[in-house]
Amino acid sequence: MSDYRTPRPLAGPLATPALAGSYPQIRMRRNRTAPWVRDLVAENRLGVEDLIWPIFVREDDEPQTTIPSMPGVRRHTVAEAVEAVGAAASLGIPAIAIFPHVADARKSADCREAVDPENLVCRAVRAIKAAVPQIGIVCDVALDPFNSLGHDGLVHEGQVLNDESIEVLCKQARVQAEAGCDVIAPSDMMDGRVGAIRNCLDAADFEQVKICSYAAKYASAFYGPFRDAIGSSGALVGDKKTYQLDPANSDEALREVALDLQEGADMVMVKPGMPYLDIIRRVKDTFAVPTLAYQVSGEYAMIRGAADQGWLDGERAMLESLLAFKRAGASAVLTYFALDVARKLKEG
Ligand SMILES: NCc1[nH]cc(CCC(=O)O)c1CC(=O)O
Ligand SMILES: [Mg+2]
Q: Sorted alphabetically, which NCBIfam families does this protein's record hold (predicted)?
């Protein structure tokens, strides 16, 4: 005999004891009354082990160290990078990602600098590996820093070539692995490159070198400051919409991830981060594989820029934005805030 005042128990995940129907018996605010209980019921946490720190490297004779669109971020010489990465390791940051600022004179249409074992990336990897062997090193595989046309692949008559680019990307991955890179991260979005790189690495006895594919990488306006940082914004002819994903699409991202996993990716990445939290969640729920997120340069610039103006509490916005990635299902996050976050978490 149920009467209208006795609430019916809810089914499924919302089920509650029959007696405790609703207010005033149930008060959601009880579990929020003090820090200890909020900590106790917290569903997600951000830790230093979630962080990957992207760094920019430059040649010793390159005078430009600051990046106007990324206040607080600088380009390091190899020696400075070794020191900075040492500091990151002592804070407990598990991995870094290296991006080179290449002099215009070294850029070409065939991107030969990308496959030179003496290029800036390879020299930085060797120096960091020797000095800070405990930290993981991630290297981007894409041709844009080395391409006089600014694209991630080879360009012929205005088209970004797929299969011809893959050949160069495989060589690039191989010289990076030889230098000591732990994780090869193809960010170029050519079709089929993950499988080709896996075969190439295995053939060269690098079967333990991991592949983190930028599987769901969108054609985004949020990469602007990064292109300033590596000096490719001036070079880029046109846009990257013929290879990077359309921000309108979500099912298509799942298909990209499925293919890269089939081709042997060990981890997948979603990029940018905050505007694409729904994609992170779908990828994690669908595939249950290590899913990384990239809080890209434009996201950093928005938070940091607003904080510098006094419009946002920068520290809180930084921590909240990163916790949101964890809540969305990310296993780890690439963030330019990594050092600041690690220091903040250490303070407690
Ligand atoms: N393949 C290049 C690459 N690797 C990482 C980023 C962006 C990172 C950021 O914005 O922080 C880009 C830019 C692009 O695709 O144009
Ligand atoms: Mg793909």
A: PRK09283.1
223 lines ligand 1 (CB under 6 A): yes
Ligand 1 pocket test, candidate residues 151, 187, 244, 300, most atoms within 8 A of CB: 187
The domain 49-347: what is its CATH number? Answer: 3.20.20.70
pTM, 2 dp: 0.94
pLDDT of 233 reads 81
User: Which tens digit of pLDDT belongs to each residue from 49-89?
Assistant: 999 999 999 999 998 899 999 999 999 999 999 999 999 99
Q: How far apart are the first and last CA of the chain?
A: 54
To the nearest 10°, report the CA torsion of 170, 176, 182, 185: -50
Ligand with smallest separation from the Cα of 257: 2
Side chain identity, residue 85: V
Cis peptide before 24, with omega less than 30 degrees from 0? yes
Q: Annotate 133-145 with b (16+ C-beta within 10 A) or e (fewer).
A: eebebbbbbbbbb
**What are the sequence ranges of the domains in the chain?**
1-42, 49-347
Per the CB < 8 A criterion, the answer to whether 84 and 76 are in contact is yes
Q: Tokens 């250490």 — which residue?
A: 346
Give the residue ranges of the chain where pLDDT is below 70: 1-20
Question: How far is the C-alpha of 275 from the C-alpha of 215, rounded, in Å?
Answer: 16
User: Which pLDDT belongs to residue 7?
Assistant: 53
